[in-house]
């Protein structure tokens, strides 16, 4: 059921309510001092992450690309790295941040 915003014309008070269309129309008919406020609609286009929708074969291709481009954002996400490589990358990022911000 959609969420509607209303305003009381007499008091100026605004409120929200979750109603079916028929209940909303009934509320507005019984209460002439209440008006519906126009709001934007909320549309959900996708649920979940892109990784959950891709096949294991495609993930393998991405990991091979990441191995050939170790400094890329793709490598950060899909690359296989050792603990030593991860710690080295983090230290390098800290130093880059330190020296570029001062």
Average of per-residue pLDDT values: 85
Q: State the separation between the terminal residues, measured CA to CA.
A: 53 Å
* Tally of DSSP β-strands: 3
Main beta sheet: 3 strands, antiparallel
Order of helices and strands: EEHEHHH
Shape descriptor reads elongated
Main sheet: strand order: 2-1-3
Total separate domains: 2
- Beta content comes to 5-15%
How many separate helices?
4
Radius of gyration: 27 Å
Structural class: alpha+beta
- The share of residues in helices is 40-55%
| Uncertain spans | none
Q: How would you describe the overall organization of this protein?
A:
With about 100 residues, this protein is an alpha+beta fold. It has two domains: about 5-35, no CATH class; about 55-100, no CATH class. The chain has helices at about 20-30, 55-70, 75-80, 85-100, and strands spanning about 5-10, 15-20, 35. A three-stranded antiparallel β-sheet has the order 2-1-3, with helices on one face. The protein starts with a strand and ends with a helix.
């Amino acid at each position: 059921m959609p969420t509607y915003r209303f305003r009381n014309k007499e008091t100026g008070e605004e409120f929200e309510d979750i109603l079916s269309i028929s209940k909303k129309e009934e509320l507005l008919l019984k209460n002439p001092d209440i008006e519906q406020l126009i709001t934007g609609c909320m549309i959900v286009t996708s649920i979940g992450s892109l990784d959950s929708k891709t096949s294991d074969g495609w993930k393998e291709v991405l990991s091979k690309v990441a191995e050939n481009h170790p400094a890329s954002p793709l490598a950060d996400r899909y690359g296989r790295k050792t603990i030593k490589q991860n710690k080295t990358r983090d230290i390098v990022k800290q130093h880059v941040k330190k020296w570029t911000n001062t």
